[in-house]
Design brief:
single chain, 115 residues, mainly beta, seven-stranded mixed sheet, 11 strands
Length: 115
């Protein structure tokens, strides 16, 4: 069984920064892909950023140049550094990892950006 624990959400003013963390524990052998998704009220969950085991990354167009995803393989942790936050970034942010073609979700952490 795999557990994901997220932290780092909160309330911030527009233009501010937050750093999200997601630590994985349990039956972890080889994490192929780690990523962050978000879901705003009344909207579908969307991909924010992904990082693969080799280090390659991809980002949603809406966050390119503002958000940075990184991972610490020794700690089985993925991070999302969010800068220049906008009110439209307000959402519940979810961590997701893929191990051996099986996906696991975190519980979500609220990010609220005030204007």
């Amino acid at each position: 069984q795999v557990q994901l624990v997220e932290s780092g959400g909160g309330l911030v003013q527009a233009g501010g920064s937050l750093r999200l963390s997601c630590a994985a524990s349990g039956a972890i052998f080889s994490i192929y892909r780690m990523g962050w998704y978000r879901q705003a009220p009344g909207k579908q969950r969307e991909l924010v950023a992904t990082i693969y085991s080799g280090g390659s990354t991809n980002y949603a167009d809406s966050v390119k140049g503002r958000f940075t995803i990184s991972r610490d393989n020794a700690k089985n942790t993925v991070y999302l550094q969010m800068n220049s936050l906008k009110p439209e970034d307000t959402a519940v942010y979810y961590c997701r990892i893929v191990i051996m073609a099986t996906g696991y979700w975190g519980q979500g952490t609220q990010v609220t950006v005030s204007s």
